[in-house]
Amino acid sequence: MSSNHHQSVMFNESIDALDLIEHGIYIDATFGRGGHSQGILDRLGDQAQLIAFDQDLSAIEYAKDKFNDPRLTLIHSPFSQMHTAIEALGLSGKINGILMDLGVSSPQLDNADRGFSFQTEGPLDMRMNQTTGLSAAQWLAQANEEEIANVIYQFGDEKKSRHIASRIKKFQLEQSLETTLQLANLVSEVVRGQKKKHPATRTFQAIRIFINQELKQLTETLEHSKDVLSNNGRLSIISFHSIEDRIVKRFIQKNSRQKPLPKGLPVANQALEKMPFKDLGKQFASKDEVKHNKRSRSAILRVAVKN
Ligand SMILES: C[S@@+](CC[C@H](N)C(=O)[O-])C[C@H]1O[C@@H](n2cnc3c(N)ncnc32)[C@H](O)[C@@H]1O
User: Fold this and answer.
1) pLDDT tens column, 35-88
2) β-pairing, 25-28 with 49-54?
3) Which residue has its alpha carbon closest to ligand 1 atom 27?
């Protein structure tokens, strides 16, 4: 498989959830290799627009090379800046749907030079946007033991977080920690693997989430979506682990559930508060998809429509 291949997860379900309008304006917040974007473009009319974001320059360069569609606008930016870009385009409140397919793409994982994989040797980078910020190696060199342990615990649910952080700091007394396999081996010394899970899975996930500020990005973008979307505009969000899904779930619940009405007021006087969103529920990948694409096993799609 070429290093540019990414098999889109819950392809039909996530696009169907947008309930596309033929000449609507849509956002793909996570272009990747453009699988979902192509699916959306294929179903839209010639007056429609798709604005695609990715903070990874290689995704945008790939898009410029392979996608030649006048309806597509590409933006190299974290999606948390979506509201600013959309405002600059004069499209605030006019977007008919936002698709987010969170996490990393297969080309990012498969390219050893990006440092996301604990299975292949490469520089410990892990930045989706390599034009800014600290690499994982730089952060691990400057953070203290407690900070490292907290990240691994909070974003990886790793019970051995303190042992791992202590092992990392001990290693760094002798030599600098620069590569993916150095880190994977250190973690394997203190964590036992479970079934098919590599011992370093949770540690790599945690450091990646921290380095890319993934949860902060997601939380901010969900808030901004209220201004970006038009009435009846939809959110279609695929997440891949429970920490991420919890943020999406809570956002939708908080913005769609009616607060209990004050007791004692006559029903006639009780104006129902209009909530920003209506919750359209969640879906999982089909058994068939899970059989063919392992990555879809943990996918959760949540959908909401703006009121
Ligand atoms: C799972 S892939 C998307 C795959 C895509 N849906 C497809 O079908 O090819 C996630 C992509 O989103 C990008 N990404 C993740 N977080 C981002 C953020 N906060 N801002 C912008 N892009 C982000 C990653 O760089 C990656 O290319």
Assistant:
1) 999 999 999 999 999 999 999 999 999 999 999 999 999 999 999 999 999 999
2) parallel
3) 32
Residue 33 Cα to ligand 1 midpoint, Å, equals 8
Task: Note the pLDDT of residue 1.
Answer: 44
Give residues with Cβ within 8 angstroms of 93, minimum separation 6: 227, 228, 229, 230
CATH among 1.10.150.170, 3.30.9.10, 2.40.70.10, 3.10.20.310 for 130-211: 1.10.150.170
Class for the domain spanning 11-106+214-257+268-306: alpha beta
Nearest in space to 136 (alpha carbons), one of 176, 190, 188: 176
Length of the chain: 307
Model confidence pLDDT, tens digit, residues 201-210: 999 999 999 9
Which residue's alpha carbon is at the smallest distance from atom 25 of ligand 1? 56
For ligand 1, whether the C-beta of 55 sits within 6 Å is yes
Domain ranges of the chain: 11-106+214-257+268-306, 130-211
